[in-house]
Amino acid sequence: MIDKKRLYLMINLARFEQKNEDRALRVNHYYQRDYIAFALIKNFLLTTIAYVLVLGVLALYNMEAVLEGLNSLDLRTLIATVILGYLIFLGIYSVIAFIAAKLKYVRMENSVEQYVAALDRLRAMYGDTEPIGADSDEDEEDDEEDDEEDDEDEYEDDEDEDEYEDDEEDEESEDAGDENDYLEDEDE
């Protein structure tokens, strides 16, 4: 018989995976600091391109005024204004990008935690006791250490068996010698 709770939970998990496979589940691979740094680098590049495009459009729109003032142009003031405007533009958009990236990461992290909790509930419905969110890396390291210890124990056991077999062979040869002595005694 099909369990309806289990079925609805599996349907909701599948919907989450389809809806968020490229966003929420990908965020899970980054630390928050790295995700925000990547967003700020992307923001720097896009803001620089946007500022250059805006300057170009403004220069084209005011081409007549630019050509008239070309002879009396104060280059230092113009460069200082352009750089100051760029830094203000970059600062404002960097703050916005930082806040947006942090909020997005926190939201996606919460949704991934809910997803993992739902997977744990589903797993519990099937009777598995170990939750999915458990650290499996530590278990793997422990398993590897146990395997190494088992290999060492097997090696030691093999050596003990070899020594035991050697002892048995020695005893058998001694017993054979005793039998030969016994046979010799009977012949006499």
In short:
Helix content is 85%, strand content 0%.
Q: Into how many domains do the coordinates divide? A: 2
SS element count, helices: 6
The best one-word shape is rod-shaped
Q: State the distance separating the first and last CA atoms.
A: 88 Å
Number of strands: 0
The SS-based structural class is mainly alpha
Q: Tell me the β content.
A: under 5%
Order of helices and strands: HHHHHH
- Extract low-pLDDT stretches: 178-188
Largest sheet properties: none
Give Rg in angstroms.
39 Å
* Overall average residue pLDDT: 76
Notes on the protein architecture:
By secondary structure, this protein is mainly α. Helix 3 runs antiparallel to helix 5 (75-125). The protein folds into two domains: 4-134; 136-188. It has helices at 4-20, 24-27, 32-61, 63-68, 75-125, 136-187.
Describe the protein's topology:
Blueprint: H1 4-20, H2 24-27, H3 32-61, H4 63-68, H5 75-125, H6 136-187
Helix pairs in contact: 1-5, 3-5
Name the descriptors:
188 residues; 6 helices; 2 domains; single chain; mainly alpha
